[in-house]
Amino acid sequence: MKKNTSSILLTILFLTFVYGCAATRYQYREPTYTEQMQQGTFLQQFSLEPSLEENILALDPERITERDIQEVLSRAPAPRIVNIHGGIYPVHLCMVSFSEFLIGMGYPEGKIRNPGDGSFSFSCYESSEKIAGAIAWYYEKEGLRPMVVGHSQGGIQAVKILHELNGTFNKSVRVWDPLTGSFEERDWIIDPIVGAKRTVVGIQVSYATAVGAGGFTRFLPNQWVMTGRLRTIPDTTVEFTGFSMGMDLLGGDLLGFGPANEYDPNGKADVRNVKLPLGYNHVTIPATSHLAESQETKDWVNQYVPTEEPKLDVKFKTSSTNILWAADVWHSIKKHWTLELQRLIRAKRGLSSGG
Fold first, then answer.
1. How far from chain centre, in Å, is Cα 337?
2. What does the alpha-carbon distance between residue 22 and residue 27 come to, in Å, rounded to a whole number?
3. Cβ proximity of 233 and 166 under 8 Å
4. Helices 295-303 and 323-353, packing angle to 10 deg
5. E strands along 223-334, which residues?
6. Measuring CA to CA, which residue among 243, 239, 163, 165 is closest to residue 208?
7. Which pLDDT band, with edges at 50, 70 and 90, does 220 fall under?
């Protein structure tokens, strides 16, 4: 009897070891930001459970549901979101509210907060070269191209960053480490997809957006360099959405009316222009955390289909302030979360097959 008991225990231990390894073999491990990246190592170390990979590849990026987020995307890594708030105190609290909205909708908090100081956003007065260098750092460490959301002067800064990455102002841009809060002595990264060195100049973000960028804020000294450049979007983003609203005294050109507020690509970037209805407030538009507190508004936001002139024809039991802006941005974030994962998985499979 004792011998049989020992045999059973050994069998249980063996099966626990075998199936435990099988269950964790493909478990995704978040990167250790202090690790020094080596050529060709990121894809070799990246792994997800095969069934999860298949589920991600099967997703339609244009139609991501709440269930898709809860059951599929939440089990995989997410791209870094770089928020840039405007300059009038305490407008940064509105970007905190937007971050809370994203978290309430299912986006991982750790991919919004700065890993160094825990903040939710950069200031529009911080160096665009520094933020561009941080984007390069995130891409190298995390393998997914970041997204940039800018509000007011932060919207101008978002476009300025695209130009920084395009080499418009400097031939080289140094990597900036958010953990140490300092520039590194290099202007290159190990591209996680290609597995080889590449310069910071030329790196793309997957999605960038600006709301309320322009108007009187154009005349501030820190924005003079954007004269003649603000409405031109280079190829350093895959997709860009520019939002404007009528009677925008602070951030609208010609009060937000007309083609002076529209953005155009100077290459292959997919650029959309969205006109928000009258009544949207320039200062408070990112204040959206309340939208994630009601299932009714969450459902509407998740089902939103982008359009150039969105309108709200539904009455909710709770506040729906700023819902059109939030829904459009959330649609793009879900879309590029999915596309970036699909890109990474396909690159990994290509490596495995020798392609």
1. 7
2. 10
3. no
4. 60
5. 232-233, 237-245, 264-265, 270-276
6. 239
7. confident
State which amino acid sits at residue 220: L
**Residue 306's Cα: distance from chain center in Å?**
18
Instruction: Report the C-alpha gap between 332 and 306 in whole angstroms.
Output: 9
Q: Which amino acid is at 151?
A: H
pTM above 0.70?
yes
For the chain, the straight-line distance linking the first and the last C-alpha, in angstroms and rounded, comes to 56
Closest CA to 343 of 50, 36, 74, 79: 79
Taking the C-alpha atoms of residue 262 and residue 11, their distance in angstroms, rounded to an integer, is: 68
Written as six digits, the tokens of 351 are 């490596």
Which amino acid, 139? Y
CA–CA separation, 56 and 225 (whole Å): 41
Six-digit token pair at 168?
Answer: 């418009």
Q: Measured between alpha carbons, how far is 108 from 6 in angstroms, rounded to an integer? A: 45
Structure tokens at 183: 């520039």
What pLDDT score does 229 carry?
A: 97
- Size (the chain), residues: 355
Domain residues of the chain, as ranges? 78-307+318-353
Pairing mode of beta strands 197-199, 188-190: antiparallel
Provide the phi-psi class of 106: left if phi over 0, else alpha when psi is between -120 and 50, else beta. left
Q: Which two tokens stand for residue 278?
A: 């009258």
Q: Confirm if 349 and 330 have CB atoms less than 8 A apart.
A: no
- Name the more confident of 28 and 65: 65
- The tokens of 256 are what? 């937000």
Report CA Rg, the chain: 22
Strand, helix or coil for residue 115: coil
CATH topology of domain 78-307+318-353: Rossmann fold (3.40.50)
Question: Which position has the higher pLDDT, 69 or 20?
Answer: 69
